[in-house]
Amino acid sequence: MSRRTNAMNHVHKYYRLEITGLWHCGLCTHYMPGNMGPDPVIGFKTRCWICDSKFILSQFDMETNKPVCMDCAMTMVKERQQSAKESYIEEFRLLGVSLEEFNKLFPKANLTAEDVKGIEPDAVEVIEADEDERS
User: Fold this and answer.
1) Could you give the CA distance from residue 96 to residue 80 in angstroms, rounded to a whole number?
2) Got the DSSP string for 61-96?
3) Which of 67, 64, 66, 39 is nearest to 55 (CA)?
4) pLDDT on residue 126
5) Rounded distance, CA 109 to CA 84, Å?
6) φ, ψ for residue 56 (rounded to 5)?
7) Backbone torsions φ then ψ of 19, nearest 5 degrees
8) How confident is the model at residue 123 (pLDDT cuts 50, 70, 90)?
9) Alpha carbons within 13 A on the beta-carbon side of 26
10) What separation in angstroms does the CA of 19 have from each of 22, 23, 65?
């Protein structure tokens, strides 16, 4: 503890308050005043909001309201990519088109034969109405 302010001696856990845009610490009452520029905490040490490890804030971290370390950020990216691929595979199954046609429709999907191995596209059956029903 500091003798002058009785403040805790710790590494701040910064977050940006959406309403004001000011950076605050989630562990104490510390904040960075608005007159210090747009990103006053770049280069400051902070704690990750997911794993609580210490890291230095960079320009990349200013894009989120609760900065996370590079390990947690990469894990989040991989999870999003996996989720997107699963969505594309489900869309492929529902559309019932060939893999080549699907990749032309959704070039970012970039599905391979290995991705859709064993997945049978849903066959859309066209049911012809009897002539009695047409009239």
Assistant:
1) 25
2) GGGSSS---HHHHHHHHHHHHHHHHHHHHHHHHHHT
3) 67
4) 46
5) 8
6) -95, 130
7) -65, -45
8) low
9) 13
10) 8, 11, 11
Q: How far apart are CA 51 and CA 130, in angstroms?
A: 64
d(CA 22, CA 82): 34
The angle formed by the CA atoms of residues 117, 123 and 125, to the nearest 5 degrees, is: 175
pTM: 0.57
Q: Give Cα 38 to chain centroid, integer Å.
A: 23
Q: Answer yes or no: are the C-beta atoms of 49 and 67 closer than 8 Å.
A: yes
* Residue 104 tokens, joined: 């032309």
Taking the CA atoms of 17, 20, 22 and 26 in sequence, report the sign of the dihedral they define: negative
Tokens of 19: 């309403």
DSSP state of 24: E
Rounded to an integer, what distance in angstroms lies between the CA atom of residue 67 and that of residue 80?
17
Please report where in the chains the tokens 């309201």 appear, as a residue.
Answer: 65
pLDDT tens-digit profile of 7-42? 568 888 888 888 888 888 888 887 777 666 667 778
* Strand (E) or helix (H) holding 103: helix 99-105
